[in-house]
Amino acid sequence: MRIGITCYPTHGGSGVVATELGKHLAARDHEVAFISYSTPLRLYELPPHISFHEVEIQEYPLLKNFPYTLALASKMVDVARMKQLQILHVHYAIPFSIAAILARQIAVELNLKVVTTLHGTDVTLVGNNPSFRPVTELAIAQSDAVTVVSNFLKEETYRQFQVGKEIDMVYNFIDPERHGYASPPSPCLPPRDCPNQFTLMHISNFRSVKRVADVVRIFARFVEQRNARLVLIGDGPDSGLALRTAQELGVADRVKFMGVVDRIAPMLQAANLLLLPSETESFGLVALEAMASGVPVVASNVGGLPEVVEHGVSGYLAPVGDVEQMAAYALKILEDCNTCRAFSNAARKRAVEYFDYRDIVPQYEAIYERILQ
Ligand code: GMT
After folding, report:
1. Structural domain 2-173+356-372, CATH architecture
2. What's the pLDDT tens digit per position in 336-353?
3. What is the pTM of this model?
4. CA–CA separation, 151 vs 316, rounded Å?
């Protein structure tokens, strides 16, 4: 099949999923054209069957804001005609779905199909902003197929919007080999570069929904009992808040700010535990990536996280904001080497059994085939 993919090319779960999906589809001999304003970050090089097409952003004196959606739609039309695309698969309803629907209307001779994957923020945070509601509803109604990344998000989409069609649920996925599945999990061992100390890790875009101050609060309680460091990966609006909280709690010297990191699998090899105390997560891709690396997760009991992390088996889930409970769970997992090893093995086992790309990518292919018939 010939598929155009549009996503946010920056760090963030939706861009990661879209890029990895495109790479796996290309490896299965589909032609994949990425269409975006810059190369998606995980598209390190262009393997066979993949092309990248840049939407140019130009400043016009008369326009206050550049109409990106329209530029994207025009580019989608050009690329669809050039590559004879059959499908435009967009990752986010606003604005990508709207651009794809417009492109389908313009390039009518191609009989393009539009697949919209909702990743969460478009439904739970942005899509339900009243001013976006009619547009999101149109995007859902006019897409040939709509997919969501968890059962939670499916229910939430039906709850928040007038949806008159069946939505497909396709979980996010990992590549077990990338996460060192061939080698035994190591989280019960002291980190290689920093012995005699546990490494707690948090990876996000530091938006308020991630509750990074809670990450630091959990860590501060943990270090009252055990020697540890906190490694923070990523950057965003609340990274300053994380630093201030660490200073206030007297643990700043134990917190390492790594900034944005492209390849997180090697970083996860040094982690003993991942903290994800978010306000909401439609799925929590980073939790899955940690589990694939054999790193247990302590997270909040919200959204799609219970579909990823099995409470008491591959990690623990606690109510949002309950930092005492989350710290207690972290101490419980890292209590001794046997417990730690059991959680680590269970985390990796679950990631591989339920979220292997070899099981998930064919589900997208089946949706493409269905709508092309
Ligand atoms: O919240 C983020 O970190 C970014 C956001 C995005 O759109 O990239 O992530 C959303 O999509 C991911 C991939 O499907 C999910 O794993 C995240 O849970 C989801 N974020 C939220 O629901 C807040």
Report:
1. 3-Layer(aba) Sandwich (3.40)
2. 888 999 999 999 999 999
3. 0.94
4. 20
